[in-house]
Amino acid sequence: MTSVxxxxxxxxxxxxxxxxxxLKGAWHAYLDWRARHATLRILRSLDSRTLHDIGLHxxxxxxVVDSKxxxxxxxxxxxxxxRSGR
Length: 86
Prior knowledge:
Blueprint: H1 15-45, H2 48-53, H3 61-66, H4 80-83
């Protein structure tokens, strides 16, 4: 007879550390949301000629900012802020 042993792995973080992780994730989500909206405001403020120079049409602004990396040829890189050291 074979015995099967199930072990449960418990999160070794304390409740305070888990709360800190949740708050950190929420803060990053908020910062990403703000960065997206700032990008939308900036792109919407550009004239059509400038948008054309960077390869965008006015109708594509939301699509470029809201799409995921594999969805389009051009996409909004949500990690730009982290790479720039800010």
